[in-house]
Amino acid sequence: MQDVQADRAGGIASVATVIGARRTVVVALIAYLVGAVLLLATDWPGPLAAILVLPYAANVVPFLRITDADAERANAGWRRFLWLNYVVGFPVTLLLIWYAVLR
Predict the structure, then answer these.
(1) Is the distance from CB of 21 to CB of 66 less than 8 angstroms?
(2) Rounded mean pLDDT of 31-38?
(3) Using the 8-state DSSP alphabet, how is residue 68 labeled?
(4) Average pLDDT over the chain, rounded to whole?
(5) Which of 19, 53, 80, 90 is deepest in the core (most CB within 10 A)?
């Protein structure tokens, strides 16, 4: 999303170039929240995993008012996203291992 203007100029089709930066952020937030709600409806430890979705949802909230013109500022969210994958990925991996062992 951070490259929406450059991608459009280069003829690259992506979700952000088609629907715009702001709508892309809204779609991402909705997808994270729907994913969390769906995890709540699963067997244990799915509801615990639902909590791990929340940092990702929180990461996109600051960009809800972003425009195509200032989409480059979403780079900060992308950099946080990379760190979130490390921080959240570890407990997700442990949950998956735990689930596989208990099953």
Answers:
(1) yes
(2) 97
(3) S
(4) 93
(5) 53
